[in-house]
Amino acid sequence: MTDAPLISVRGEAVLEVEPEIARLHVHVQTQESDRRKALDRLVERNQHCLDLVKSYGEAIEKLETGGLSITPLLKYRRREGDIRAYQGTVWIKITVADFTVLGELVTRLGDLERTYVNGPSWELRRDSPVYKDAARQAAHEAVSRARSYAEALGSRLTGLVELADEGLTTDPGRGGAPEYAVMAAGPGFGGAADAGTPEAIDLEPETQTVRAAVEARFRATAPDLEAPAAASDLEAP
């Protein structure tokens, strides 16, 4: 078997699918001349924002606080005690599973005072079955291509030598996970509160492209190089 011919191929699959979740990044800010007042106002605005998001129930898959800061803003000369104000910021990360409420949520968040919204960023879940489907199709493509090469040589496949994610068979130091193309996030939103509830913005989910590639080597029977050429070969100029 060590002298058996080897057929090396590459299989690839590219799938275009609808996103499964949308991520929003929200910054809630306050600025006051007094440190305690800035902190109290930040607590109030943060709670208001969280209450708004939680009111959407199961449409929200995950709600997280990414961090908090209270920063003194110094005057131009920066002498000790020359603090003109204190700025507070809370970072909130929101994962939305129900896109029917997304447009309304974005505009209502953007309507809150001193609140800045970036997103949505359309994504697939990390455990989405789409990734497995793409890998499976890439493997099927590799087998089909190797079988076609073998048939063209008058031989047949007899066994699999190696199947790996793209790059692992030629560069052991390179990571071999399938490649995924993640689309860019949409525009951000922000603004001061106005009277009444803002009209929901229409947001169209962005198509996600998932790509998987594998490399494979197969053993094959000895080719029949003496077989008559195919008619298509004889017609070549």
From TrEMBL:
GO terms for biological process: DNA damage response. It comes from the Bacteria. This is DUF541 domain-containing protein. The lineage of its organism: Bacteria, Bacillati, Actinomycetota, Actinomycetes, Streptosporangiales.
